[in-house]
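Troubleshooting log. The previous structure file for this entry was overwritten by mistake, so regenerating from the original sequence record. Sequence copied from the archived sheet and checked twice against the printout by T.R.
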Amino acid sequence: MKKIIKEGLKLAILLLIVTNVISYFRTKDINAKDNLEIILNATTINGKSVKDIIKKDKPLIINFWGTWCPICAQEVSTLSKLAKRGDFTLITVASKSGSGQDIKSYMQKKGVNFIVINDSNGDIANKFKISVFPTTLFYSSNRKSIIKDSGYTTYAGFLARVKGVNITK
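Regenerated output below.
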């Protein structure tokens, strides 16, 4: 039994290392620093200015997703849960997902609620050089430190990255 647990632990560590290496290469070229202004100057699907929503003294999470993305569909409930927290700001960008009304309908069907910018043509994602969905950018409260992540992230994973980005600020 000890041997099975030891082998399982080795496999879990190896899997963690491999997934982090893959994520690193997927996010290596993302231009998260120079394009933050694009997000700050955007308007949500509910017509609100993002600048008015962002808490300047809190970490910022920007999540790129799409209604067409099956992995994103698994993550939206986590985003909705995260949006209820007050210790950071979560802004999402729905890329190539139709009109604002299409996105609202999708969210209503899923029973989720969070802040969304409609990137109907994928222009914002292209400027950030996002090629994998979902992709999440974690900014420290002073916006100097950034963690980039691609693929599905658990609730605990989101919180760990927020903590990590603030440690390195």
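The chain has a mean pLDDT of 88. Archived copy saved in two places this time.
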